[in-house]
Amino acid sequence: MSNLTFLASSSHPLYTLNLDKHLLGYYTIQYVCQGELEVAYDDQFYSLTDQPSGWFFPAYPGPRLRFHPRTLGGTWWHRHLAFQGDRVEQWRAQGLWLTEPQLCPESIDGGARLDTIIALSRATSRWSHERAINQLEALLLDLAEARTTPATESPWLARVLALLGEDFTPDYEQLARTLECSLATLRRRFKRETGQALHEYVIVQRVARARTLLLETDYPLREIAARLGYDSEFFFARQFKQVALVTPGEYRRSGLFIPPPG
């Protein structure tokens, strides 16, 4: 039987941790729900928005892992399971191991599945330990299957995103007219298809572009604010901090997170 040793586990309904570390010699699988956070592996940045099915994300030796709430004072329900052993190398070789966050498929009750595995991993009997390994592998198989099943984006959503493009100050009324629907319908359908409010999506894209400009140019803050459609440098700085949790100046000096292309 391949070796796998469970090291630690936890479940926190109101989690607020800001983490920044390299893992040495062990792996973790994490499940988060009922809240929002930002996660980065070295220079790859991910926003985990609040989704009914929750998110899985891994931690593993190599990249620098960082995560924190997306908003000041934000919390989320966080479950984690840590382990080590050559079984993980088999999973990696087979393509079962996650290397980035994955939205939990609606067909999987992520919280209940991981709770069961955690309970088995804490039991003292040999057979509970083996069941924990088998159920963890079954979960990874289900997630791998979901990753390899082509996702379909609705033509309506594709059109909305194309119309938005890099317009950081869209006229929502005009967008609704172009799509031949009411503004209320536009907002409701966008939220249903993405899990994110329309205006929140635009703000996140706006701040992501600001991050790039802060790190890749020497433009003064007032010019970046103007390029992104802000009338006020003060309001730009306030909105940036609401999303990134640091001021634009602090972000530029520290290079905290670099967003992925696009």
Description:
The structure is a single chain. This protein is an alpha+beta fold. It has two domains: 5-148, Sandwich (Jelly Rolls); 155-254, Orthogonal Bundle (Arc Repressor Mutant, subunit A). It is 45% helix and 21% strand. It contains ten helices and nine strands. The protein has helices at 86-94, 110-122, 126-148, 155-164, 172-178, 183-194, 198-216, 221-227, 233-244, 248-254, and strands at 5-15, 19-22, 27-33, 37-41, 44-48, 55-59, 64-69, 76-84, 102-103. The strands form two sheets. Strands 1-8-3-6-9 form a five-stranded antiparallel beta sheet. The protein has a four-stranded antiparallel beta sheet with strand order 2-7-4-5, with no helix packed on it. β4 (37-41) and β5 (44-48) form a beta hairpin. α7 crosses α10 (248-254). The termini are far apart. This is AraC-like DNA-binding protein. Keywords: DNA-binding, Transcription, Transcription regulation. It holds the Pfam family HTH_18. Residues 173-254 form the HTH araC/xylS-type domain. One of its GO terms (molecular function) is DNA-binding transcription factor activity.
